[in-house]
Amino acid sequence: MGAFVNPRWLVGSAAVAAFLVVWQIVGANEIIRSDLVSYPTEIAASARELAASGELGANALATLREFAEGFAPAIVVGVLLGLGFALSKIVRNLFEPLFVAMYTAPLIAFVPLLVVWFGVGSTSKSVTTFLAAVVPIAINTTTGVRETQESWIRACRAFGATRAQIVAKAILPGALPVVMAGLRLAVGRAIVGVVAAEMYVSTLGVGRLIQTYSTAGRAAEIFVLVGVVAGFGFVCVGLLRVLENRLAPWRARA
Amino acid sequence: MTQLVVQGLRLEYPAARGGAPFLALSDVDLAVEKGEFVTIVGPSGCGKSTMLMLIAALLRPTRGAVSLNGQPVAAPGPDRALVFQDFALLPWRNVLKNVELGLEMQGVAAAKRTDIARKNIDMVGLRAFERHYPHQLSGGMRQRVGIARALSVDPEVLLMDEPFGALDAQIRQVMGSELLHIWERDRKTILFVTHDIDEAIYLADRIVVMSASPGRVVQQIKVDLPRPRGLSIRTSAKFNEYRETLWNLLEEQVRQSGSWARGEGGA
Fold it and tell me: Is the ipTM of this complex over 0.85?
């Protein structure tokens, strides 16, 4: 059996295992104060507790909902705006400077303002998610459209395609792989956005839990929650990759 | 019956900043009979592909007109289907869906589209590959898809822009003979641009020789070889005569343009 295990994978696992063992020894023996760094078995116990009490489930669900309510419209608006940027000079001149500014400005700095506008409830978090996600989606859509090959459009035009048909049959499907890459980027930014907004002020959500436990100086719970957030991002990106391979199998080999 | 008429066709690109305007095509006249196989040869950059794009109405002429069955041609349409040198297939569509493209533009119903596409895929010998994607096919197979796609819209005229130019010599000959085979079934009018002299003779009823840039028609040669033509016809004495005639004409054109001296001869 051992001969069939990829050695690179083996080395990676060994490194992680070694790290966990050292962490356990350092934390459990108070070589460094365990309330600061915790240790693996304590974190596992906290995870069980958080899950059993229902605290984790309810808060994770709230965050998930805020995320979904912000991300879904961000896909629609982002793709349409990106198309607009690429195909219309007017749209580009109107919105592109604003977008470049939004891409570089730290969104977190706007959260207090968003809370004033949309309240301490879930809406301000969804709006933060939306703003974090819409920018990379739009920018990637623009790039994808600009990279569509002239030959695809030429083929459609030769058969008398209308402008709408060219967009639907050549430009959008051609841009799809780059749009999907934009979605992957957007997932990361949106997760940071929603959790940060919850940490600023909220009544429910994984970010609020992190805030609560950090005030209480509970390192173990924070590690659990950070792990949950990271796991969610990992799953999202994985699903997007599966979807991308489904929708654009041609790109994988190109 | 004359089907396609090209009259005084001229294309001039406006001057780039500080430069002179570029004349790509200079007053070309051409009349093509229904069912005729016409090949167009000329030195590289002479505007032969440009002429095809003007007939397809993918480009607008500076002057002159194209008419099909007496009707002026103003926009691209399925009555003139193009086959491109770079195939121009859509990589996210399989063979069947690529062949259906032109029919989709015309709003043909899905079931009928598939029917027509299958028939044409059969004709080019790709029945077993209809679910394959372009990246899974060889160059020759890709161009068969291009040909099936063009034939699917049942065009009046087939415009072929160096369709076998990207293929290696052997495949190129096979594709030529298969094209003749298909053509002999329904005798669609074909305009075929090539820079390969043998290909031009082998396929044609008539060869149009164009001048070096700016392109105009220098001579038209009727090819009086029996049909159907096998590949062995290329070694016949008559074929050799045509070859010599064409070589001389083209050499003269290339010399005049000075492109040999600049090292641009050949393709």
Answer: yes
